[in-house]
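Continuing from the previous page of notes. For each protein in this section, the sequence appears first, followed by its structure tokens. Read the first protein now.
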Amino acid sequence: MRVLHIAYQQLKRYGHTRVSWAQKLTYGLIKNDHLVQGFSDRDVASFEAPLGIRDLGVKKANKRLLETVESFEPDLVIAGHCDMIPNETLAEIRRMMPGCAIAHCNNDPLFVPSNVDRLKYRAEVADAIFVSTGRRELTQFEGSRARVYHMPNPVEPSVECFNNSVKPDAELPIDLIFCSNSQNFTKRLEMISRMKEQLDPIMQFKTFGSFGEPPVWGRDYDRALEQSKMGLNFNRQEGDYWYASARMAQLGGNGILQFTHSANRFDELFPAESIVYFDDEATLIDRIREFHGDDAKRQDWAARTRDFFHTEINSTLYAQYIAEATTLTPFSHDYVWARDINLDGTLK
């Protein structure tokens, strides 16, 4: 198929940020032999605006998008996080290309109210919407034009290219890592502060972006991951079914043992003895100490997680699932995250 992917490509950051889930989607589409044309709404708005003032270039960016559609003639349009493109423009694309399917992919959490509004808005015009929260919590979006699906955070072999599960303790100077630069809708740093008091004396616990440690981006972030044994997969809030940030794939795909709250029920998706679950702070600290003192066990569990990610939740399967679900093409693979749904997105 000819796929037009509308998503922020961070062109003006010149390599200082890490590959995003949207870029992984593009890579996966190409690996599935689709012809992909990217359109970065925010970058185009900046390039087309007077004096480079992005907000002044929104109208022109929408015009350029329609020009791209006319020239490229896509079979599928995937709109990611592209708030500069209103539904009216997507509706115009449908008018121009009546046979073109339209999908919206959204990787943000539902506990942010504005994101729920954004999803309901896109559901008015899209054929399908894909959300990083599990399907059981997406009934609020039913009844609109769009079919509703869950999508995971995938790994991409060229990005999650480390395998710390085969490295011994001596080669990994960071015992435990947590990276964050967001404090909205969250109290997780209160818990991490208490954990540091107990764990700092016995291990190297790095909290980039918090407690005076500067954040790491791009290549610096990759270097930090490359040196880490274990990581905290903390969301800003816990309890949303099968929801986790891209951090989950970044840790697991690189063979870094991760600790995840049990309330998100990833035990229903991942194999046993792969991810370490906890219910409360005391249990978490006990489990961190347990794996810190048993390197063979750490390697075994981390290897199982890494293998599952790279085999079952990779960018190639992820991209093909989105293409198939949007176009109502029968699934070509037994997607582990979609075993509870029918092709049309309804729960079995």
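Done with the first. The second protein uses the same format. Note its length before scrolling.
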Amino acid sequence: MSKYTMAQIVALTGIKAHTLRKWETRYNFLDPERTDTNIRYYSGEQLKKLLNIAVLTRNGYRISKIDKMTDDEIHETISDGITEGHYEGEISALIVSMLNMDEVGFNDVLRTQIVKKGLLATVTELIYPFLNQVGVLWGINKVMPAQEHFISNLIKRKMYASIDLLAYPQKNAPSILMFLTEDEYHEIALLLAYYIAREMGWCVYYLGQDVPTENIKQVIQEVNPDLMLSMFVTPTEHPAKVKVEAILEQGNVPLLISGNPINLEGIMDDERIIYLSHPDDLIKNLRTIKPA
């Protein structure tokens, strides 16, 4: 059975640590186990229950009332019309689908939101915060490797299929070169950027993951892009600053970067680059940057 630390529970549910400790002493629904050194840990079933409880408390249910509800009553209450703003409920549902490795449930949530909001809004307002919350996107608070890989591959398939449905850009469309540098394999964020740029009419030259820096110059000479985009998610022994300097030496093309802020210390203030902290930053720049 999967085990989760308190820090992981906080990251996944949004429930604060001091609240968890208070609930543990006052109510019956939460009973974490402890290691030999007295450190709390939680089971997968407890995590799923806490995700549902978080939904109920955000919808005004008092924790004292929730404590008296059975698991079936909790599930029934949520399914009978609990509505959440800003996708909190949907994010919880995606996390539960990930924990259960439930492809059907995961796709049902995405399909419903795409019909309601469209794919771009679903990507930026649901998939992005979901990935950010479970630590897939920026490589922080990493948990549950097997479930992460399972859900990551589902999202990749969805993104590639969605990109293939987009119209081809016009011949005079601005162009952007996208790639991850050597030893960078977290591709989902780059795929989100790929979809956003194509949906906005840009021509995208997508090289994918683990691209040797020396190959970038050749591609720049071949396609003459208006922009470049790369992301630095995985902590490595080689500072991202060295990689960014090497990329900038390959050609006089503006560089957009994103990723784990810890990896980008000393880079984000460089005037030669544009730092993206959120998909909205990419959208804004693609709308305002004029091609050369």
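What the second structure shows: The mean pLDDT is 83. The longest helix spans residues 145-165. We return to this in next week's lecture.
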